[in-house]
Specification:
This protein is α+β, with helices and mostly antiparallel strands. The protein has one domain: Alpha-Beta Complex (Cathepsin B, Chain A). The strands form 2 sheets. Strands 2-8-3-4-5-6 form a 6-stranded antiparallel β-sheet.
Length: 199
């Protein structure tokens, strides 16, 4: 009986250590950001979901990845340009980007390629700085930030920051029906991108 207790305790300890290590690895390299300026949330922005039945099965280019599994960036861009002179649904956007070779064989967004498309502009920030978020918002643009969802094991996701109120960045998460705040992702970001449409 005592041997069984020791084995069970060992298993529990091993699981605890695995979870702890996964959290340490998950948070490595990120930056905690703090909001100090308010930016109004646009009323004209359309909140899309990447797993909408209308486009969830569409592939990112010729890759095996679909909008449902990996379309968070594309969905964020669709929301970001929804108030522009060329609004596109996530389905329309992924089709357009796929036809123009914006995705590589693994379904990754080629930022230089999207920047070459008429009217599209892409800013890729090489470092991590909360100032990049405010720079975009102050120009009426919406930064796409890489975050980690709250889960036992690390997996990244992208959300669109659409404004800031009362010290909180407001986000459009393409896997949620309502707006969230960056606080729900521990106010920690891992990259910043910005795409806007302007002729």
């Amino acid at each position: 009986m005592r041997k069984k207790i020791i084995i069970v305790c060992g298993i529990v300890l091993a699981i605890f250590m695995l979870v702890y290590i996964s959290q340490v690895v998950k948070n490595r390299g990120g930056l905690n950001v703090k909001c100090e300026v308010d930016y109004p949330v646009p009323e004209i922005m359309v909140h899309y979901r990447q797993d909408d039945d209308r486009w969830r099965k569409l592939h990112l280019g010729d890759s095996k990845y679909t909008m449902e599994s990996s379309g968070c960036i594309t969905t964020c861009i669709a929301s970001a340009i929804s108030g522009s002179s060329n609004p596109l649904s996530p389905g329309g956007l992924v089709t357009y980007l796929s036809e123009n070779g914006v995705f590589d064989a693994a379904g990754n967004m080629q930022w230089g390629a999207i920047d070459q498309l008429p009217g599209f502009n892409a800013e890729v920030y090489s470092g991590l700085d909360a100032g990049y978020i405010d720079e975009c918002l102050s120009k009426g643009r919406y930064p796409i930030v890489k975050i980690h969802r709250k889960s036992l094991f690390s997996y990244h996701h992208f959300v669109l920051i659409i404004g800031a109120e009362n010290g909180e960045y407001i986000c459009m998460d393409p896997l949620k029906d309502t707006y969230t705040t960056l606080k729900e992702y521990s106010n920690r970001i891992y990259s910043v991108r910005c795409v806007w449409y302007e002729l």
